[in-house]
Amino acid sequence: MILMLNVHPSRIPDLVTPEILTFDPPTSVRVYRDDFDNVCTRIVAPPGRVTVSTDFLIHDSGEADVVAPDARQHDVQDLPDDILIYLLGSRYCDTDKLSAIAWALFGAKKPGWARVQAIVDYVHERIRFDYQRADATRTAFDGHEGGEGVCRDFAHLAVALCRCMNIPARYCTGYLGDICIPPVPDPMDFSAWFEVYLDGRWYTFDARHNTPRVGRILMARGRDAADCAISTNFGAQQLVRFDVHTDEVIEETAG
Predict the structure, then answer these.
(1) What are the residue boundaries of the Transglutaminase-like domain, all occurrences included (predicted)?
(2) Residue 253, domain member (yes or no)
(3) Whole-prediction pTM
(4) Is residue 152 in a domain?
(5) 178 within a domain of the structure (yes/no)
């Protein structure tokens, strides 16, 4: 199995306590980084039930996602070479099926932040969140036509529409607790959002929630969910139980 359960290297300096994956029964592991600099753990799972767990404290700024209404969109010819991959179609972001739709909907929108926000607004209204309707094979186009899904479907559709409009976009997954918002009745899970490249940097957007949030903890990023799979198995397996928790811990200050 390949497990992508660690925080992204960009958040490692924020760890307050060690982040260690624990296996029961004990299992030998090998850790490596993939082409997107995500931390991957490679194991040969023993027969029978295997429990993988981790628990850690991480420091967060407490600030919400950055909002920059004046961030401009680059012309394609001005983009850095390593950004171009995030304009291309990918496994779950089938831009070829969405290009005409995207240009009809957003071609008249002001390029840059306003155009991205228009895409996020559209996806937020287009897809109905339903945890019971998760589908690992659903593409961005499928989500657009079916109008239902989970957070990854919101992210895939928004990413694909941005790419259709020549805005580099990449998929992200990680922890997102119910911090600074009213309690949410849905069971906690890992979350998916996306980033766009505007004005020489990456900005965070979230088509499911469509509001800046506090406490995102990035685990992995890539072209789509295929690059950020929490677990990849090479053989039969059954997920018996799955628990995710992200709880706010208030720092104590010396008095």
Answers:
(1) 143-209
(2) no
(3) 0.94
(4) yes
(5) yes
Residues 6+ apart with CB under 8 A from 3: 21, 40, 41, 42, 43, 52, 230, 231, 232
Q: pLDDT per residue over 54-113, tens digit each?
A: 999 999 999 999 999 999 999 999 999 999 999 999 999 999 999 999 999 999 999 999
pLDDT digits (tens, 9 = 90+) for 155-199: 999 999 999 999 999 999 999 988 888 887 777 889 999 999 999
- Note down the domain range covering 171: 76-224
The DSSP string of the chain is -EE--SPPGGGGGGBSS----EEES---EEEEE-TT--EEEEE-PPSS--EEE----B----PBPP--TTPPPPPGGGS-GGGGGGGS--SS--HHHHHHHHHHHHTTSPTTHHHHHHHHHHHHHHSEE-GGG--TT--HHHHHHH-EE-HHHHHHHHHHHHHHTT--EEEEEEEE---SS----SPP--EEEEEEEETTEEEEE-TTT-S--B-EEEEEEESSGGGS-SEE-SS--------------PPP---
- CATH code of the domain covering residue 139: 3.10.620.30
Instruction: Give how many domains the chain has, as a whole number.
Output: 1
